[in-house]
Known about the structure:
Keywords: Aminotransferase, Pyridoxal phosphate, Transferase
CATH architecture of the largest domain: 3-Layer(aba) Sandwich
Number of domains: 2
Mean pLDDT: 95
CATH topology of the largest domain: Aspartate Aminotransferase, domain 2
GO molecular function: pyridoxal phosphate binding; transaminase activity
Low-confidence stretches: none
Strand content: 15-25%
Radius of gyration: 22 Å
Organism: Heliorestis acidaminivorans
Structural class: alpha+beta
Helix content: 25-40%
Bound molecules: pyridoxal-5'-phosphate
Number of strands: 16
Largest sheet: 9 strands, mixed
Number of helices: 13
Oligomer: single chain
InterPro entries: DegT/StrS_aminotransferase, LegC-like, PyrdxlP-dep_Trfase, PyrdxlP-dep_Trfase_major, PyrdxlP-dep_Trfase_small
Shape: globular
GO biological process, one term: polysaccharide biosynthetic process
Amino acid sequence: MDKANEEKIDVQKIIYSLENILSKNRIKTIPLQEPQFLGKEWHYVKDCLDTGWVSSAGSYVERFESLLSEYTGAPYVVATVNGTSALHMCLLLAKVQPDEEVLLPSLTFVATANAISYCGAIPHFVDVDEATLGIDANKLRSYLHEIATIENNDQKSFCRNRQTGRIIKAIIPMHTFGHPVDMDPLVELSQQFGIKIIEDAAESLGSFYKNRHTGTMSDLAAISFNGNKIITTGGGGAILTNNQELAILAKHLTTTAKTAHPWAYYHDSVGYNYRLPNINAALGCAQIENLPFLVKRKRELAQKYEETFKNFRGLRFFTEPSFAQSNYWLNTLILNENGPKELEKLLSLTNKSGIMTRPVWTPLHQLPIYKKCPAMTLEVTESLAQRIINIPSSANLIEA
Length: 400
Ligand SMILES: *Cc1c(COP(=O)(O)O)cnc(C)c1O
């Protein structure tokens, strides 16, 4: 064990520094991540109310979709009622069938696995890399060589798990706390093994991987606009795709699969009521106008944290990988081997003193609902789960 790993964690010093960076004269608790309404939100929402276009029709949805397309560079965007429904729809569009397996990190929000379950498919957990907090492509490569075979059918290759006999249809890399996963090796693996990629970019609007926006390195991706994300529509989500046919199908299936007709109700498949209401899209249009400003502020806050925690013993402030330009949606401290001993104390003291902090999610393979799912060894996930602490990250915590 190297020296840094043995070093004691000074919990009081961490709290003192957080107090210092955040606000000294505050009267309320500093949240982890607070929405910012700085622009035309009132104006656009009022417009919906004034005109009566609040629900399933109206011009803000299309406008929001094209603003997202412009910002991310994704050729097609379909807005949905939340990020989970966007993920579910992506899996349906990738033709994930019941009893097929879908690879995903265990270190993610439960929605990633739930969307797989909605398809009747089976989550298959893979480990993450401490340097990116996303899927460890090297470990995945050796694992696939060990457990999977590539089969060919109609000139298409697909991947079979030899241990379960099931097809491994897709993989869902998730860009943790906004930090991009190293996508290139995953894209290579997916091509080699015939596994489709769906990016869970729920947290990474405003984050770029080698100058490409997250969610545009695969055929399908999902974003979330829940209240805790970098921009919000109250509740909302979006599907990004580079495929026009999939985009048309996504729009159709998220709007009850109704065929176009002036009055007839005719539905040609089992559709979903997953469309984003116009009033939520109105909020989104105003929010995205301020996205570059929010990303800038959050990056400045992260820089301040980085400088402050640079010389701390026993922990490091997580910074973007060299290939990434991150939105720093949630700022993250990673404690050393002593972390598991100190985590509860740190969480308890910070929250008591009005600085909201949170641990990372319980790894999904440890939840009773998912504990019987196939999984590789998950030692990095299990270790990180006891050493990660998220600290206040709102864009207004740094002076303009
Ligand atoms: C927020 C989030 C989702 C789900 O988004 P909702 O809009 O809350 O349904 C999915 N995956 C990850 C990683 C998230 O953080």
